[in-house]
TrEMBL record, chain A:
Biased composition (Gly residues): 834-866
Classification via InterPro entries: EIF3C, EIF3C_N_dom, PCI_dom, WH_DNA-bd_sf
Subunit description: Component of the eukaryotic translation initiation factor 3 (eIF-3) complex.
Name by which UniProt lists this protein: Eukaryotic translation initiation factor 3 subunit C
UniProt biased composition (Basic and acidic residues): 800-821
Organism field: Ostreobium quekettii
TrEMBL record, chain B:
Subunit composition and interactions: Component of the eukaryotic translation initiation factor 3 (eIF-3) complex.
Entry similarity comment: Belongs to the eIF-3 subunit E family.
GO molecular function: translation initiation factor activity
Source species of the chain: Ostreobium quekettii
Record function comment: Component of the eukaryotic translation initiation factor 3 (eIF-3) complex, which is involved in protein synthesis of a specialized repertoire of mRNAs and, together with other initiation factors, stimulates binding of mRNA and methionyl-tRNAi to the 40S ribosome. The eIF-3 complex specifically targets and initiates translation of a subset of mRNAs involved in cell proliferation.
Domain PCI: start-end pairs: 222-393
Annotated PROSITE patterns: PCI
Record's subcellular location: Cytoplasm
Name of protein: Eukaryotic translation initiation factor 3 subunit E
SUPFAM superfamilies in alphabetical order: Winged helix' DNA-binding domain
Keywords: Cytoplasm, Initiation factor, Protein biosynthesis
Example GO BP: formation of cytoplasmic translation initiation complex
One Gene Ontology cellular component: eukaryotic 43S preinitiation complex
Top-level taxon: Eukaryota
């Protein structure tokens, strides 16, 4: 007993800062090795402990202590238990279980340690597993006799209560070191050898024997049953510790070649594919490319068989597949476990992950990209198969995967892909002609040698990417769930944007109400949404719809985290430290390089559209804060920033260029402005580069004219049309139209004189007295207003409160209205802005936000407030850090969420 | 001109019977080959019960006395149906034909039903039969009858949905009877009923509104106050404007025409122009382009050009042909007024060209405008120009404007204070 105390004391001393389990480990180690000289101080790993245990077994043969005898007895009971388990006899198991526990008590008395021996733990774990398995297996349970069933029930209840060594069992389960068991197994069996425990020998040596047998047999001698037996054996060991996954794969690969009958081949292949997936246990790292390829080829093989044998039915639920040992008759219906859809999704994920990880500037990346056609071919085969089987649950999932491969491909990329596919097919054909004989052998060793992957000859990509996408999207819409539909919608909007169809894209976006719901969706969908919005912005820009482009892109940039929003790289934030988990999550969300939207281009589009919208306003009100600017006076802020510099160097980055261009434009010098814009390097990435630049030139001329008139009109007493035309290289109609609009809107005070075609300015120079009088009258009316407000305050009772309500609130409201009117004023199709800026009451009301009153009936007017409130709430910074990790992410991923969040809470108290 | 013809776009939203006047009109305009229209008519009538009429057209078209047997069969069927329904509905019709009986009916529907049941053994089936009989009458082209029957039916029917259908039926009957006063009432009732419906599927609501807008065209362009009403209804933001933008942008033409004709309501122009620009990518015709040229581009030459096209289009439009001259006159005025707003000096000669008028006529027209104080301008007859009055305010005027109401406001303020202390 002193031993125990000592060890406890020892453990306590050595692990004062360690966790409970640690101290236990130490404890057991200390007592286990107490008879020997080996110190517990060494190592401290589990391996060591196990070794020492077996060592003591061997020592025991020389000096048989009482302790060892007890352990020995315990082991015998354990084995008895195993045997009972094998024959599925629960009544006996119950009695053995009791015996075992009694034995354990005795053993513990002798060994005098708090934890039971490993053998006990192991058998308990096995018992538990087996019990769960039996419990889950309804079929088998039905077959049992009633007494047996009852025994099973009671056993389960007892085991649930029997939680004495839960911790140890958990530790045993959790211990992933597979070598443990093997290393232990061998000495154990050898020791039993000497003890003449025949049962144990049989038990231990069964597995290797059989393996050898089936491997060494002639393939033609192998029967269906043997394969089935072997397969179920492999399956049972699957997922258990101590199984060598690689070996399993090899085994299955071999089995696939010797399997009898198409159904069995499919069965073996499906297990092979899933065990290949198992080879890579971690979510973070990607599957090896070679494994990926063999997976793909196995699946193609499987599909080949399936299409040839329509009698094979696939079942996704493993429990519903009856275990049959006999070989089925030819043509009879066979059920086989296989989940094609899940495999496809996994394959796609692995492809995606590998592309995320591989450095995009290497050859390897290109090579990997070339594997995409294989996947596309496979997915298409699967979807064809599913269509033929009328499986409308799996079909949309596969279709969605395909959509997500197609949607971002511009025509040139798509065509290149088609060409590549054709080439690959040809190459495959040639290879097939050359090495027809080798084919079989190659397949045999496909897992370890380089896998040969062929694009099936019957795979064709639709000539028109648009059609291909349309068909797929239609099938998703028909059968898919909400998320799939939303994603498919976003993908097709994205595709429309790439193909310069802004209006359709916008209408779809608005009609699908995606912007209302996107905050509620998962992050990956939000990223897709952000990508779509960015692409819409680019598309609008190319079409010359500057306000729309600004509305789309500006929102992404307003947060300053555009990289994060588009999942195109990590932003290092100064204010917010990320936990490693957050970072890991974010890394997993990243887009592969070939799907990126060029950020420089996006930034140029954003800044240039902001410039075009803001420059005239800046010129109109050079001093006071801009009254009617587009939502955010971004350029003016930049400009102020730059003006504080003492020296301005030649422009280098996008911002420099645009600021320089803006400065030029503000003096009406559109030519220089255009030059700066043209100098941006990113235009080469813009499709239809020349047209876009031409469009920009036109816009710069127009806005230049407006800016010029704003800035300098008061210096002229008359302006001639011809002069303006030559200055801005615009035709007289255009100049006439622009300046007429300004006259009508009272932006310049003047009128046309038709006979001379000049604008005559009516500038009224006010004398000092007059301007003083104007100011005075302003003050007087202000005084009156104040008086009125004061009176109202007296009426309502509380001066301060009333001042708050009456003073600020209306002014703010007025501000919103102004905003709305300003937008209206611009006469632009601000539907975009209206739909998206749902938080702005002034704006939302007048767009086409709700088609045919849909908005009203679906969400009600109050919906915006509620949602805004939630979003705002989620954004509040004072949150416990534990929740922050999740919640902070969500609004950040949806640019809208953050936008609303910022604006809404202010209104909430009023509501 | 056929490319600007809207009949094909409007027809899907109309009842078969309502399309008929449109086709009749087109026949007169000879935009399409006569034969096509005739065939269209037969096609149209095939599914109605107006078999005799269809037969006449068929004979006319094919120049024979032979009629295809399926038409004969259809005719027999229709007659049989009519007989059967009449028999079913006879008790109630008999009851209704006596004005004294009708007078006994009250406002309370449940009471009426019980009364009928007890006194005349007229149950819900007979009332339903009345509806079907009215429907059949409508199908046969007997609109007066159907309008009357449906009116009675609405007094008796219990379920709001059936009442709603009956209302649509009555609306159509009244339109076809050219009884636009009654149709206008029905229209108001329909709108009320539709707005009152809560929890309708958005798609259904959209469809109903689109239909209503199309049917209402008949009323708007024939009723005396229609031009005003169309602006009120179509520009009703969240209900009809949205429906129009989504489903039927071609209706913009009628809205534009109404706004131009109703020149007093210039205030809606701004909103309208915005809508036109928004929809330009999916619908535009010379009428919308005219407004765009005038109020967005300020390009008077183009506006003039479009106006020329408009005249032709309006002439060929069933709804607008009657309003053509009014439209042209007002459009001209709009051009001139806008022109004046941005000019201070206008050459009469160019102006007359823009207005497509004789130079003297133009001068007379302008002088008349000046005399009616619609225009602040003077004619300089030596240089043949019109000189606009300077519109900008002098600073003194500004100050006067700003301080004008100060005294009144102060007075009111003082009054309130005194009143407050007294109370």
């Amino acid at each position: 007993m002193s031993n125990v105390i000592q060890s406890r004391f020892w453990a306590g001393g050595s692990s004062d800062d360690a966790s409970d389990s640690d101290s236990e480990e130490y404890e057991s180690k200390g007592s286990g090795s107490s008879s020997e000289e080996e110190g517990a101080g060494a190592g401290g790993n589990r391996m060591f402990f196990l070794d020492s245990d077996t060592d003591s077994d061997e020592v025991r043969r020389v000096v048989r202590s009482a302790k060892d005898k007890r352990i020995e007895e315990l082991k015998v009971v354990c084995d008895e238990m195993r045997n009972k388990m094998k024959i599925n006899d629960w009544t006996s198991i119950q009695t053995v279980f009791d015996k075992l526990n009694r034995q354990l008590e005795r053993t513990l008395k002798v060994t005098a340690k708090p934890t039971p021996p490993l053998a006990y733990i192991r058998v308990m774990v096995e018992l538990e597993d087996f019990l769960e398995e039996m419990w889950g297996n309804k079929e088998a349970k039905k077959k049992m006799s009633p007494t047996n069933q009852r025994a099973l029930n009671t056993m389960r209840q007892r085991l649930a209560k029997h939680v004495v060594y839960e911790k140890e069992m958990a530790a045993f389960r959790a211990d992933p070191v597979s070598t443990d068991e093997e290393e232990e197994e061998e000495p154990e069996s050898s020791s039993f050898d000497e003890d003449d425990d025949l049962e144990a020998i049989e038990e231990a040596s069964r597995a290797p024997k059989k393996k050898d047998k089936i491997l060494s047999m002639e393939p033609k001698d192998i029967t269906h049953e043997m394969v089935a037996e072997k397969l179920s054996e492999i399956l049972q060991s699957r997922g258990k510790r101590g199984t060598d996954r690689q070996e399993q794969v090899e085994m299955l690969t071999y089995l696939a070649t010797v399997a009898k009958g198409p159904a069995q081949v499919v069965q073996v292949l499906s297990h092979l594919v899933s065990s290949l997936f198992d080879l890579n246990p971690s979510m973070a790292s990607h599957m090896k490319v070679s494994q990926w390829k063999s997976c793909t080829s196995y699946m193609l093989q499987m599909l080949e068989i399936l299409s040839d044998n329509p009698n094979i039915k696939l079942e996704e639920d493993a429990e519903q597949v009856p275990e049959s040992a006999e070989e089925p008759e030819e043509g009879a219906e066979v059920k086989v476990w296989c989940s094609l859809v899940a495999f496809i999704e996994r394959l796609d994920d692995e492809l995606f992950k590998s592309l995320q990880v591989i450095d995009p500037h290497t050859h390897e990346y290109l090579e990997r990209l070339k594997d995409e056609p294989f996947f596309l071919a496979l997915a298409q085969r699967v979807s064809e198969y599913l269509t033929s089987k009328e499986d409308f649950k799996g079909l949309p999932r596969v279709a969605l995967r395909l959509v997500e491969h197609y949607y971002y491909k511009v025509d040139s990329v798509y065509n290149a892909m088609r060409k590549l596919t054709l080439e690959q097919q040809q190459a495959a054909e040639e290879a097939a002609e050359e090495g027809g004989e080798e084919g079989g052998e190659e397949e045999e060793g496909a897992a370890d040698t380089k896998p040969i992957l062929k694009v099936p000859a019957n795979f064709t990509m639709d000539e028109d990417a648009h059609n291909a996408l349309q068909v797929l999207v239609a099938s998703v819409f028909k059968h898919g769930d909400e998320r799939a539909k939303a994603r498919a919608m976003l993908c097709s909007i994205f595709h429309k944007c790439i193909h310069e169809d802004f209006y359709t894209a916008r209408d779809w976006m608005l009609m699908s109400h995606l912007q209302d719901n996107v905050q509620l969706m998962d992050i990956s969908t939000q990223i897709l949404y952000n990508r779509t919005i960015a692409q819409m912005g680019l598309c609008a820009f190319r079409a010359g719809l500057i306000p729309e482009a600004h509305a789309c892109v500006g929102e992404l940039y307003s947060s300053g985290r555009v990289k994060e929003l588009l999942a195109q790289g990590m932003t290092m934030s100064r204010y917010q430290e990320k936990t490693p988990e957050q970072e890991k999550l974010e890394r997993r969300r990243q887009m592969p390089f070939h799907m990126h939207i060029n950020l420089e281009l996006l930034e140029s589009v954003h800044l240039i559209s902001a410039m075009l919208l803001e420059a005239p306003n800046l010129a109109a009100n050079p001093l006071d804060a801009p009254r009617r600017t587009s939502s955010k006076p971004f350029i003016s802020w930049l400009l102020n920033n730059y003006q504080s510099h003492t020296y301005l160097g030649p422009p280098e980055n996008v911002k420099d260029h645009v600021v320089a261009a803006t400065r030029a434009l503000l003096t009406g010098d559109w030519r220089n402005s255009y030059k700066y814009i043209c100098a941006l390097p990113c235009w080469s990435l813009m499709p239809k580069q020349a047209e876009v630049l031409e469009m920009l030139k036109g816009k710069l001329q127009e806005e230049g004219l407006r800016t010029y008139l704003f800035a300098y009109a008061s210096q002229y007493s008359s302006l001639s049309l011809d002069q303006l035309c030559t200055m801005f290289e615009l035709n007289p109609q255009k100049v006439g139209s622009i300046s007429s609009r300004m006259i009508i809107n009272d932006e310049i005070h003047g009128a046309w004189d038709q006979p001379t075609s000049t604008i005559v300015m009516h500038n009224i120079e006010a004398t000092k007295l007059q301007s003083a009088a104007v100011q005075f009258s302003d003050k007087v009316s202000m005084l009156l207003e104040m008086n009125e407000r004061a009176l109202r305050a007296i009426r309502t009772g509380n001066i301060h409160e009333a001042d708050d309500d009456g003073g600020h609130a209306p002014r703010r409201r007025g501000g919103w209205d102004d905003h709305g009117r300003a937008d209206r004023h611009r006469g632009n199709k601000a539907r975009m802005g209206s739909g998206r800026g749902g938080g702005l009451p002034g704006v939302r009301g007048w767009g086409r936000g709700g088609y045919g009153g849909q908005r009203g009936s679906r969400f009600g007017e109050g919906g915006g407030y509620d949602r805004g409130f939630q979003a705002g709430f989620r954004q509040q910074p004072q949150q416990p850090p534990s929740q922050q990790s999740q919640q902070q992410q969500q609004p950040s991923m949806s640019s809208l969420g953050s936008l609303r969040g910022r604006q809404q809470p202010r209104r909430v108290p009023a509501v | 001109m056929a490319q600007h013809d809207l009949t094909l776009r409007i027809a899907p939203y109309l009842d078969r019977h309502l399309v008929f006047p449109l086709l009749e009109f087109l026949q007169g305009k000879a935009l399409y080959p006569e034969r096509e229209i005739m065939e269209g008519k037969i096609e149209l009538l095939q599914r109605t019960n107006m078999v005799d009429f269809a037969m006449d057209i068929y004979k006319n078209l094919n120049d024979t006395d032979e009629v295809p047997p399926e038409m004969m069969a259809r005719r027999a069927e229709v007659v049989r149906d009519l007989r059967r329904l009449e028999k079913e509905a006879r008790p109630i019709i008999h009851f209704l034909s006596d004005p004294n009986n009708v007078r006994t009916l009250r406002l309370d529907k449940a009471l009426n039903l019980r009364f009928l049941q007890e006194q005349y053994q007229i149950g819900p089936e007979q009332i339903e039969a009345l509806f079907r009989f009215a429907q059949c009458q409508f199908q046969c082209g007997n609109y007066g009858m159907s309008a009357e029957l449906l009116q009675s039916y609405r007094q008796l029917c219990a379920s709001p949905e059936r009442g709603f259908s009956a209302l649509w039926g009555r609306f159509a009957s009244n339109i076809l009877l050219q009884n636009f006063e009654a149709a206008n009432d029905d229209l108001a009732k329909l709108r009320e009923a539709m707005d009152g419906q809560s929890f309708v599927a958005p798609a259904l609501a959209l469809q109903q509104r689109t239909w209503l807008m199309h049917w209402a065209l008949f009323v708007f362009w024939n009723h005396k106050n229609g031009v005003n009403a169309i602006i009120d209804v179509f520009l009703q933001e969240d209900r009809y404007l949205n429906a129009m933008q989504t489903n039927a942008p071609h209706l913009l033409r009628y809205l534009c025409a109404a706004v131009v004709i109703n020149y007093r309501r210039k205030s809606v122009l701004k909103d309208l122009v915005k809508v036109i620009l928004q929809e330009a990518y999916q619908y535009s015709d010379p009428v919308t382009q005219f407004l765009e040229a005038l109020y967005v581009k300020y390009d008077f030459n183009e506006a003039q050009e479009r106006l020329g096209e408009c005249s032709e289009i309006l002439d060929n439009d069933y709804f607008l042909s009657a309003a053509r001259d009014e439209f042209l006159e007002n459009a001209r005025l709009a051009i001139f007024e806008t022109y004046c707003r941005i000019h201070q000096c206008i050459d009469i000669k160019t102006m007359s060209q823009k207005l497509s008028m004789d130079e003297d006529d133009a001068e007379k027209w302008i002088v008349n405008l000046i005399r009616n104080e619609k225009l602040d301008a003077r004619v300089d007859s030596r240089s043949r120009t019109v000189v606009m009055g300077v519109t900008s305010q002098s600073i003194m005027e500004q100050i006067i404007d700003r301080t004008r109401d100060l005294s009144i406001k102060t007075f009111r303020l003082a009054n309130e204070i005194v009143g407050g202390t007294r109370a």
